[in-house]
Amino acid sequence: MNIANRCRFCDASLKYTFVDLGMSPLANSYIKDVQLNKMEPFYPLHTYICNKCFLVQLIEFESPESIFSDYAYFSSFSDSMLQHAKEYVQMMIERFGFSSRSQVIEIASNDGYLLRYFKEKGVPVLGIEPAENVARAAIENGIKTISKFFGARTASELSAEGIQGDLLIGNNVLAHVPDLNDFVKGLKVALKPEGIITMEFPHIMRLIEKNLFDTIYHEHFSYFSFKTVRDVFEFHALTVFDVDEVKTHGGSLRIYACHKEDKSRNISNKVNALISKEIKEGLNTLEHYVTFSESVKETKRKILDFLVREKRAGKSIAAYGAPAKGNTLLNYCGIRTDFIDYAVDRSPHKQGHYLPGVHIPITLPEEVKKTKPDYLVILPWNIKDEIMSQMSYIREWGGKFVVFIPEVKVYE
């Protein structure tokens, strides 16, 4: 565990604050009944910006083993994520021709929600998932999975067994690794000579632009610009040859990389175009990052203004979803059962628990029909359209949907 204020990529001293969200519990540390009266650990949720490489990052206060060994998030419970995965698989097969002769390896493969679509196409797959409970679910679903943390050591072990990837996939994992250099070094080892890497991760440019501060939590050690990611990969002799901007998580990037020694890939025009866009937005200047805190503070004030006003008017408020991002927002704003009566979630792995820190109870979606709240706050705003469609019946009693990010907005 590293609690020194040093950049995890270039080792420069971290002196400048990006945003300080105070003290917060681990975002996926859902509370059971027996834990309600026990001490709950809180850690600083303070992000820094490196003035040398412009990597936004959290200091590591808790080990990945403590955070990820028993994990509450299962991707298969989101219809939107399943559709995103299905479209990705179809695109990759059409573009690069992966087949029964290929080996696809996904890092942080969760419950196999993505690899199942490759398997359906007859493409051999292997998942690497550190959370043992989630890995078991993938295996039960017929997806070959090993439960390990990925890095240079795991990659070397697999390579010694003759296992390397024609395609290495990492969706929403790059931000989750505290030892960034070891992780990317592992990618280099695990990739076949003419193989391809794709990584998806939230784009810091969109996080700032859309005020997505709730996507900051202890599982996310790093927050990337495209330029910084390209520099990290180049440092480890990997070339980023293409990039897509995708809609997931409020605005993410999908990068395509290969070995530096592999000259068969042409560099897409989109690579330099996106770097130019980032420079135009100011992502190469310290000032662009350090001013973000003020917009976050103002958002907190507006959220609390809304809640105080509506509760004083006698309105009842419930929340849909128990995502990590919601736990950041609720703890930063100090929103407990004095404002939100309960939360509902489709995942049985969260039902019957309480949100960390704020101790709002999590129950089944059917509770909404029973209690008929005036407002349903959508905490996983990134899939709000999916949720509003599923829960459209709240309009029968005049219920309204609310999202807090990027700003407070009520949907009739």
Secondary-structure topology with pairs:
Elements: E1 16-24, E2 43-49, E3 56-58, H1 64-68, H2 79-96, E4 104-107, H3 115-120, E5 125-128, H4 132-140, E6 145-146, H5 152-160, E7 165-171, H6 180-190, E8 191-202, H7 204-209, E9 222-223, H8 226-235, E10 238-246, E11 252-259, H9 269-281, H10 286-290, H11 292-312, E12 317-320, H12 324-333, E13 343-344, E14 362-363, H13 367-371, E15 375-378, H14 384-390, E16 400-403, E17 409-411
Parallel strand pairs: 4-5, 4-7, 5-6, 7-8, 12-13, 12-15, 13-14, 15-16
Antiparallel strand pairs: 1-2, 2-3, 3-9, 8-11, 10-11, 16-17
Helix pairs in contact: 5-6
Structure description:
- Residues 248-406 form the C-methyltransferase domain.
- Pfam families: Methyltransf_13, Methyltransf_14, Methyltransf_23.
- This protein has 412 residues and is an alpha/beta fold.
- The protein has two domains: 67-267, Rossmann fold (3-Layer(aba) Sandwich), CATH 3.40.50; 292-411, 3-Layer(aba) Sandwich (Rossmann fold).
- The chain is built from 14 helices and 17 strands.
- The protein has helices spanning 64-68, 79-96, 115-120, 132-140, 152-160, 180-190, 204-209, 226-235, 269-281, 286-290, 292-312, 324-333, 367-371, 384-390; strands at 16-24, 43-49, 56-58, 104-107, 125-128, 145-146, 165-171, 191-202, 222-223, 238-246, 252-259, 317-320, 343-344, 362-363, 375-378, 400-403, 409-411.
- The strands form three sheets. The chain has a seven-stranded mixed sheet.
- Strand 4 (104-107), helix 3 and strand 5 (125-128) form a beta-alpha-beta unit.
- Helix 5 (152-160) packs parallel to helix 6 (180-190).
- The longest helix has 21 residues, at 292-312.
- It starts with 15 loop residues before the first strand and ends with a strand.
